[in-house]
Amino acid sequence: MIEVENLHKAFDGEEVLKGIDFTFEKSKTNLIIGQSGSGKSVLLKCMLGLFTPEKGVIKYDGKPYSRFTEDERKDLSKEIGMVFQGGALFDSMTVEENVMFPLKMFTKKQHKENKKRVKEVLKRVNLDGNEKKMPSEISGGMQKRVSIARAIVNRPKYLFCDEPNSGLDPKTATVIDNLIQEITHEYDITTIIITHDMNSVLEIGENIAFLKDGVLAWKGDKSQIFKTDDETVTDFVYSSNLFQKVREAQQKGL
Ligand SMILES: Nc1ncnc2c1ncn2[C@@H]1O[C@H](COP(=O)(O)OP(=O)(O)OP(=O)(O)O)[C@@H](O)[C@H]1O
């Protein structure tokens, strides 16, 4: 669980996060949604420790970051997995070497043990048998699965995903969403996902933070977001082509 309390962040005196309160729950897919520039990435980067907020508290499983010792901060970084927007695989490394990378960085285990762990996670993301392939030899969806395998290889407590299904066709995007959700439940991870994709909201929106101009404008889950009459939220939801069509169909009584 990650609790964010009264979080403020400014750049050159201009506030981009204006007192965010939100609990990212354990064993749930927690989505951050909102228009471009609403502060989603800044919030994520504050939780990753890449930005220092001016005010507010971020607690990891109940403990405020400000009370972490230097060693505990290092340990925390090992407990974080990250799925980047483009996948961010190393082109010159095989699938196996990509997934092994964090193990080599953070553990002192023998090569044989690392290889075994890599095999396990590749099997979990249905990529066994692809160990020796290069990223250029596999599809975009498979590359995303490699980047998920790499993110979970160290058994993280927290998984951060920045638009994990961008650039994928809708069917493959849903496969990736479902995989992230399954892994979240299986390994009891606190998963935080930035997304622009309303399909993802519909599929895996277990706990949603909707940001508008640096403020938490709404929170709820996927069943609530399509029922709310909060105009800020409905404007955003129905700006998606798909849901505009659903709404028009509903209005026509179809
Ligand atoms: N390093 C930075 N220095 C100055 N301003 C920044 C910095 N990072 C973000 N901002 C500003 O903070 C605001 C929020 O940006 P942020 O990247 O969090 O938006 P976002 O909701 O993630 O947008 P998008 O969906 O387009 O990625 C924007 O006005 C942006 O210009």
Put the structure in a nutshell.
The protein is an alpha/beta fold and 254 residues long. Helices cover 40% and strands 24% of the residues. The structure holds adenosine-5'-triphosphate (ATP).
Class from helix and strand fractions: alpha/beta
Q: How many helices does DSSP assign?
A: 10
Main sheet summary: 6 strands, mixed
CATH architecture: 3-Layer(aba) Sandwich
Query: CATH superfamily, called what?
Result: P-loop containing nucleotide triphosphate hydrolases
Protein name: Phospholipid/cholesterol/gamma-HCH transport system ATP-binding protein
Keywords: ATP-binding, Nucleotide-binding, Transport
Organism: Salegentibacter holothuriorum
InterPro entries: AAA+_ATPase, ABC_transporter-like_ATP-bd, ABC_transporter-like_CS, P-loop_NTPase
